Predict the 3D structure of the following.
Amino acid sequence: FHKDFAGHSARTDYVVLDENTCRIFIASEYVGEKGWAQDMAYMVETRDGGKTIDFVSWIAETDTVRSVMPSTVMLTTDHMITALRRRYNAPKNVNHSLRDNWIDVYESRDNGQSWHFLSKVAETDMHKRNGNPPSLVRLRDGRICVTYGYRAVPYGIRARISEDNGKSWGREIHLRDDAK
C-alpha cells in the first residue's frame, strides 16, 4: 500500500458496508522521514469484494507516537470515529526510560478521506508497560462505550461512556480490579 511500510502490526478492524465494500483499519510499521520505524494506523478500502484494496488515509498524522489496534464505529454513512492504542516510543538514540500509553479517538466526516484528533480517553498504565487496546461500540441508546485493560495496580478492565459521539468521556468505570 505504501513504499515505506515495513510490515503489518497488531489487530485489524473492519467495517463492512455491503457485499463489495469494506473499510479496513490496520497499522503497519512505517519508516518515516526521521529514519526510524514506528507503527502507524491507517485505513484502506475495497469496493470490489476484495479483488483490490486501496490506501485511503493515515488516521494519526505523526511518526513519533505509535498508533495501533483501531476500533471503529460508524455514526452516519460518512461519519465515523476510531479509538487507537497510543504509545510514545523514544528513538533508540534518545535516553527516555518512561513510556506513555493511552487511548485517543479520531474522527472522520468524509468517509475516511481525512481524520482529526477528537479526544483522549484514558491512560492505560503508569508508564511501565505497553498499554492496552480499546474496544469501541455504539450502545442501543446511541451513546459510545469504550473498554480497555489497565496494566498497572490495580490491574483490571475499565470503561468510559461518551454521550457526544466521542468528544468527551464520562467517569472511568472499573469493571474489575482483580487481575494479576
User: Anything to note?
Assistant: Residues 138 and 153 are 29 Å apart (CA to CA). The two ends are 40 Å apart (CA to CA). DSSP finds no helices and twelve strands in the chain.
